[in-house]
Amino acid sequence: MRIGLVGYGHGGRFFHAPLIATLPGATFVGVVTRSAERRQQLNTDHPGVKAFDSIGQIVEAGVDALVISTTLKGRPALVLEAIEHGVAVVSDKPFAANAEQAQALITAAERQGSLLSVYQNRRWDSDYLTLRKLIDAGALGTVTRFESRVERYTPEAVGNASGGGWLRDLGSHLVDQALQLFGPVDRVFAQLQFSPEYPTLDHGFFVSLTHANGVISHLWGSALQNSQAPRFRVSGTAGCYTVDGLDGQEALLMAGKSPKTEGEHWGAEEHRRWGWFEQGEERERVPSEKGCWTQFYRQLHSAVQGQGPLPVEAADALETTRILDAARLSHERRQVVETKAL
After folding, report:
1. What domains does the chain contain, in order, with CATH numbers?
2. What's the pLDDT tens digit per position in 116-127?
């Protein structure tokens, strides 16, 4: 598979390029970027990988798939342009600014016959895979409450509009995980936080989802939290699972490491970072599954060859976008929003 990347900012450089470059059976064709600085970074990071001026240029060079990793404001237009060239397309998250825009992209892909996926890489986080294994094995019994947080202290990110605000950007991961684990949502309640300097860009959020099966999901995100609570706290009739910290793959990529440099150790969490199972006085460590963001691209490879489903269906991203729309509406109205009424 021949893969091209559009955009070489933070996401393209650290979250996509290292995985594409080390994917077995794939060729990293090049990057579309006109920035002289980013072209120099590309040359340093991946010598010999070519820079292109446009999507048209890189398509002419021959690609089976294009990954669009630019800011949200201009990304849908680039996704649409790539779709019109008839190649498989991966959109970074958040998928779109609203559900109407998301549906328009899906309709365009269906009309063109192009594969369209969304980069929800955190379906392959170590902690999420561990939690999914526990739920599937029935270790927690019937889950009643799912608490999920990604909280950081990054003041420089407060005014970052690349994802359209913290809810739209980070929240897309947390909502996607909740939907994957517990299914459709009937009701949404949300509260957002803003600063006077950036009155339209939320830097923190709380979202409560009532799933059709009765599970309650509580989701938090913050760019200004000094004391981080557990990443997951999942309560069930047979026990509770908690885990602290974030999956380590992000830190490895930011440090310039990759699946190639780390080999079989990629995605493995040190035992002191494992989570806990607790019930009454019983408390024991739960070994963490290996994180594997590379699995997204492996599945994309198979899908392009017609040998399996996409790693993330665009319809899933549409549903996530609908929930995020409902969350913003809930905040504006200061009331619970019934998703079926939208």
Report:
1. 2-119 (3.40.50.720), 122-291+322-341 (3.30.360.10)
2. 999 999 999 999
